[in-house]
Amino acid sequence: MDATFGVLACRVAALQLRxxxxxxxxxxxxxxxxxxxxxxxxTSDAEAVCAGGDRKTARRALKSVGKQMSRxxxxxxxxxxxxxxxxxxxxxxxxxxxxxxxxxxxTLRKEVTCPVGS
Length: 118
Fold this sequence. Notes:
This protein is an all-alpha fold. It contains 5 helices and no strands. 82% of the residues lie in helices and 0% in strands.
């Protein structure tokens, strides 16, 4: 898979939509929404600063994306996640998606060249 800012942003947005779709439990959504919002902002920030040529700040923002996905996975696997998404198969799929995004962010962090497209 090609690690680009567009792919990363698309994956984060898709995970957000899927999470909203699988549950109406407000306690669970509150627990994970902060991580999702921060991951989306960090992705767009990383792309913007990379376009400006600041590789170090872009890499730092991509590290934040990985940390937020780890938080999402941890909270989804915790008690609030088990109560919010009782179906283990769906819950595990969300956790797997978050770990895939974390891995993608890590790969992009290693390979990023700024400005984008150079």
